[in-house]
From TrEMBL:
Pfam (any one): GFO_IDH_MocA
An annotated Gene Ontology molecular function: metal ion binding
Cofactor: Zn(2+)
Family: Belongs to the zinc-containing alcohol dehydrogenase family.
Identification of the protein by name: Oxidoreductase
PANTHER family (alphabetical): D-GULOSIDE 3-DEHYDROGENASE (PTHR43350:SF19), NAD-DEPENDENT ALCOHOL DEHYDROGENASE (PTHR43350)
Alphabetic keyword roster: Metal-binding, Oxidoreductase, Zinc
Species this chain originates from: Streptomyces populi
Organism superkingdom: Bacteria
Coiled-coil boundaries: none
Length: 727
């Protein structure tokens, strides 16, 4: 299928061929009929991409702050690779469309194949021929509403949320500053609510359009006509609300808002304009400044948008989806007219040229639509693909298939970790061939194929598992899918490298082990890379053998996650420690050369900090302090191992030291922290090529996973948990 994409580093726009997205549970696959270009938001993004690196930095100081923090935590080279990887990737455009349901995922019962729906979201309603859209980001289109009009649903929801934030009432007077697409819709929504509207825009054509759609008066922001109209309509008191729907770097909109708003009026920011509030003017009138967040409640909440968890209507009357449905209803009943806003309809094949014309100013437009080619055949009946390979019981004696040289690898998932920490090492390794990348999001597969040289990109997992030329499968997806994908790959006879965690529940772990037993295939490695870190390996060698029990302390200054991170989706992806804690348990067990026999975990109330105590057969203990409330400038990982009159210390994979009869201190690493990914991957590839033992024994992987699961059980029970009980 085709999709409009942009390279944020070069500014290149392209109509790219990408794999068709899969139809996941909880959503529908939609074939686009019309998609809407947001001439404000999208063109701002397109313009930013065309800036120099310095210009990009100036326009996004929030991202610059994240880069600075990443440098402090991960070092310059790793941060540079990560930033350049993100910049030099294709990113999607679009967030408002109308299309036909082509396939229905499991758990969806409110629409069927062939239904017309309006879709929202800058990750799901893209300028693409096909999109997978979760339940709370689509709404059925009312009978009789034209698809090109329904494509306005998302931007209509943005305007509607802004009007709701203004709490307009019958008979009030409102000022709308900025008469672009959002401003024109705000004018109509306010007029439909019984509010008289004055519009402000420097473009006379837009002023005329707003007056034709219901505004009482419109004019240039610097003209006296606007102030005179406000004075006449309000008896000199000023407007009840001001809606800032303008963009740009001028502070004129907020200054005008203060001048024309009444005492204790409301100012609502919908667009993205400069907000240097003149303190005296806003203070003297005690103006109520409000922000309108996109389409409405639910926006940026993964539980609502991705998992389909609705907010009870008794507590949240207007959510994203209800706003979308309400706007479609208003357009269907003729209360809002979007036809006059359509300046141009372009064929989807002309998308790149259309963006260029808009950016260069050749095409003057309020709203531009892409029309997609109609399908000559009817959509297929809905189907659910279950990628499973059935094997008869082999009694654990099935031989491992001989491997070739080069080793052919397939990746299931191509997110940030895969593209920044794994694939760069593999592309530089002799004797490795990147065969296929599999993702559910088409564009990420295309990006990985382009950047790392995969021979194929697809969304069909079955095809990869059934491909006898593939020697090993890397599972680098979200945590909730690790165990099931690992199980299927083992049953298909593949060597498997799965990122941590191996499993989120005891049943999932049991399922993986059942697959090993059924297939006789135990070729499994979990991404516990720290034991392969050269600095830690040298420190362990310098420490030498021990005779008595050891005490190990591991402080993990994990820090807080960004709002919206999928790591926070504990209902589906497990706790944060469940996802990451295996790293630290594996490192402790490797240093102590044993598997833990019991786990005790405690957590202070009100935050995610954990104290985990592991006990080992010889009496050794390891205490892992996993904290999220520490200072961001402090190193992430510090470790101390004490035994037999010796101390080993690791400082965040930058420096290590051993104190004993002699003192050894490593030199500070000249480059980035090496946490062992390269050596781990080399060991895995070597084992696959030669058929030799896997880098970490399966028994150790299982013990570490069971210990990680026992942490949650210990928190719930408030007592130590033996690993036998945890399993």
């Amino acid at each position: 299928m085709k999709q409009v994409v942009q390279n944020y580093k070069s500014g290149e726009l392209a109509l790219l061929d990408v794999p068709v997205p899969g139809c996941k549970p909880g959503g529908v696959l939609v074939r686009t009929a019309f998609s809407l270009i947001s001439t404000g938001t999208e063109l701002m993004k397109v313009s930013e991409a065309g800036m120099s690196m310095l210009g990009k930095a100036r326009s996004r100081p929030d991202q610059v702050a994240k880069v600075v923090q990443s440098v402090a935590t991960n070092g310059v080279p790793a941060t540079y690779r990560k930033v350049m990887g993100k910049l030099d990737s294709y990113t999607p455009l679009g967030y408002s469309l109308c299309g036909v349901v082509e396939q229905v995922g499991a758990g969806i019962d409110d629409v069927k194949v062939g239904d017309l729906v309006a879709c929202a979201g800058n990750e799901h309603a893209l300028h693409a021929e096909l999109n997978w859209v979760p339940k709370n980001l689509y709404a059925p289109v009312p009978d009789g509403l034209a698809p090109r009009h329904a494509a306005f649903g998302t931007v209509g929801s943005i305007a509607m949320q802004g009007v709701r934030q203004g709490e307009s009432r019958l008979g009030e007077v409102a000022l709308v500053i900025g008469l672009g697409l959002i401003g024109q819709l705000v004018v109509q929504l306010l007029t439909a609510s019984g509010v008289r509207v004055v519009g402000v825009d420097p473009d006379p054509a837009r002023c005329e359009l707003a007056e034709s759609l219901g505004a009482t008066a419109c004019g240039d922001p610097s003209s006296a006509a606007v102030e005179n109209s406000v004075a006449e309509l309000t008896d000199g008191h000023g407007v009840d609300q001001v809606y800032l729907a303008a963009g740009g770097g001028s502070n004129q909109p907020v200054e005008l808002a203060a001048r024309l708003c009444r005492d204790r009026g409301r100012v609502v920011d919908i667009g993205k304009c400069r907000l240097d509030l003149p303190w005296n003017a806003y203070y003297e009138k005690e103006l109520d400044v409000r922000f309108s967040r996109s389409y409405g409640p639910g926006r940026y909440d993964p539980a609502y948008e991705l998992e389909g968890r609705d907010y009870p209507i008794g507590y949240v009357r207007w959510t994203e989806r209800r706003n979308l449905a309400c706007f479609l209803d208003l357009v269907a009943r003729g209360k809002v007219d979007v036809e006059p806003l359509i300046s141009h309809i372009a064929g989807f094949d002309d998308a790149v040229e259309t963006y260029r014309s808009l950016k260069d100013g050749e095409l003057k437009a309020v709203a531009v639509l892409f029309r997609y080619p109609e399908q000559a055949v009817e959509a297929e009946a809905p189907a659910v693909t279950v990628p499973a390979v059935k094997r008869t019981a082999a009694g654990g004696s099935a031989p491992v298939r001989p491997v070739r040289t080069p080793v052919r690898l397939a990746f299931v998932g191509a997110g940030n970790y895969a593209t920044s920490m794994l694939l760069p090492h593999l592309t530089q390794r002799d004797g490795v061939e990147l065969s296929t990348v599999v993702t559910t999001t088409a564009l990420s597969a295309a990006n990985a194929q382009r950047k790392f040289g995969f021979a194929e990109a697809t969304t069909d997992l079955d095809a990869v598992l059934g491909d006898k030329s593939v020697d090993a499968v890397f599972v680098v997806t979200r945590h909730s899918s690790h165990a099931e994908l690992t199980r299927k790959a083992l049953l298909a006879g593949k060597a498997v490298f799965v990122e941590k965690p191996l499993a989120l529940t005891e049943d999932e772990l049991a399922g993986v082990l059942a697959a090993v037993e059924e297939s006789g295939n135990d070729r499994l490695q979990v991404g516990f890379n720290r034991r392969f870190a050269p600095l830690l390996q040298e420190a362990r060698q310098r420490f030498g053998a021990r005779t008595g029990p050891a005490s190990l302390r591991y402080l993990v200054n994990a820090g807080r996650l960004d709002h919206g991170s999928w790591y926070l989706q504990q209902g589906t992806e497990g706790s944060r420690f469940a996802g990451e804690g295996g790293h630290f348990i594996d490192t402790a067990s490797w240093l102590l050369d044993a598997d833990p026999v019991s786990v005790y975990a405690v957590a202070p109330s009100g935050n995610e900090d954990l104290q985990v105590v592991l006990r080992y057969p010889d009496g050794s203990t390891a205490t892992i302090s996993y904290v999220t409330t520490g200072a961001s400038g402090f190193p992430k990982e510090t470790l101390d191992l004490v035994a037999d009159g010796k101390v080993l210390r690791l400082d965040d994979f930058v420096r290590a030291s051993v104190y004993g009869h002699k003192k050894w201190v490593s030199s500070r690493l000249p480059k980035a922290r090496d946490k062992g990914q390269s050596a781990e991957l080399a060991a895995f590839v070597r084992a696959v090529r030669t058929g030799g033992p896997m880098p970490v024994p399966l028994e150790s992987l299982v013990a570490t996973t069971a210990a990680t699961l026992a942490v949650q059980a210990g928190l719930a029970g408030g007592a130590p948990v033996t690993l036998a009980d945890a399993r």
